[in-house]
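USER:
I would value a second opinion on how I read folds in C-alpha cell form. Give me a protein, with the fold worked out from its sequence. Write it directly below this note and I will take it from there.

ASSISTANT:
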Amino acid sequence: MAAGAPRIFVSHLAGVAVFDPNGDQVGRVRDLVVMLRVGRKPPRLLGLVVELATRRRIFLPMTRVTGIHSGQVLTTGVLNVRRFEQRPTERLVFGELLDRRVTLVATGEEVTVLDLSVQQLPRRDWEINQVFVRKGRKGGAFRRAKEERRVALPWKGGGGRRAGETLTVEWSDVTGFSLEEHGQGAENLLATFEQLRPADLANVLHHLSAKRRAEVAAALDDERLADVLEELPEDDQIEILGKLAEERAADVLEAMDPDDAADLLGELPEEDKERLLSLMQPSDAADMRRLMAYEEHTAGGLMTTEPIVLRPDATVADALARVRNPDLSPALAAQVYVCRPPDDTPTGKYLGTVHFQRLLRDPPYTLVGSIIDDDLQPLEPRAALPVVAGFFATYDMVAAPVVDEAGSLLGVVTVDDVLDHLLPEDWRETEYHLEEGVGADGA
C-alpha cells in the first residue's frame, strides 16, 4: 500500500459531493465500479458512478480523481458526460456487493457484508482490501431506495444496526465475491492477464480468435483498451474498433495518445472517420484533424500534441510536479517545453526546452525561463522520417519539439514513435525473450 494512504469505507462515499478544480460541484457519488479478479485477489476500483444535476449518471475513472477527503471527491475537471453503462466484467459496490452473504474462510461461517474499505496503491491504482461483516442472520444492511435513486444507509436513519457480532477482515479471508478459477468467459481471461503490460496483452489478443478478441476488448475499460490498441498491428486495431459501439469507440480514441489515434483514424473510410470525430470531444477532435493534415512519415505526423508546456515564469517546483504525473510516458516526462501563452498546442512562441536532469540540479524556486536550452533547433512539422531519426541519433534525445514557421510549439516527437515507423511492418509479430546470460546468437 502507498505509505500513509488512508483506508476509506465505501459507506462514507455514498452521496458525497464531487467538485472540479475550481471548487464547483459537478455531482454526487451514487456507486463505485470494481473489477473482480480470479481467486481471492482484491478487486480493482475502476471509478465512481456520479449523478449530475441533470440526474444523468456518468462514469468517473479513478485516474481523474485527485483526492478523497473531508466528505468530498476532487477531480481533474475533465469529465465525460455520456451516460454510464455497466460492462460485463464490472460490479457495482452498492448495488451488488453490499448486503450479500459471503463465507469466512477460517470457520466456514456465513456472514453479511455491511461495508468495504478501499485504499490507494503506490501506482495510483485503487483496490478493495477489507470487508466489514456481521455474523448472524441477513438483514438489509445496505438497501437501495430506487424510487429516490439514492443509496440508503440504515445506520444513518431508518432501522439502525441489527444485532450480531461485527468484525473487519481482509478481502482474502472471505469467499463468495471473486471469480471462479474455471470457465472461459472474457472476465476470467482478463483477470488472468491483468498484470501484463499493454504490449504483452496486445500479443495475447493478436493470437486469439476474432470472436474472443472482440469479447476481451468489450470487457476492457477504456484506458486499458486504448493502451492495448496502441500496441496492436493495424489490422487488429481496425477490426476491434469496428466491433465497438460508436460512442465507445470515440471514447477509446480519446483515451489513446493523439498521434496513435490519428494514425488509426486515418486508416478508416472517410464516412466512418467523420462520424467518430463528430462523437469526440471538440478539443480532441481538433487535435486529430490537425495531426491528420500531415503526412504519416513526417515530424507532424509522428508527433503527439500533449507535451508538458510551461510559461517562462513557472518554477522548477511547478515543472517537477508536472513531470511526476504517472500517466506520462518516460519520454514525455524527460523534458518540459517553455512557451509564451497559450499553454495548449499550438502554443504561443516556443522559447526552449528544460531537461529533467537540469530540473534536478536547480533550486525549486528557480524560474524555468532562466534555465532553458535553446541551442538545438526544433524540428519542422514536414521534416521527413530520416531527418527526424537523424536528429535523435545525433543529439541522443528521447523527445524533440516540433515548431511551425510562426514559432509556435505544435507537439513533440518521442523516440518510440520514431522506432515504430523505422522497424519492419511485422515487427509486432516477433516475440522477444530476454534471458540473463543469453545473447542474440544464443551464446
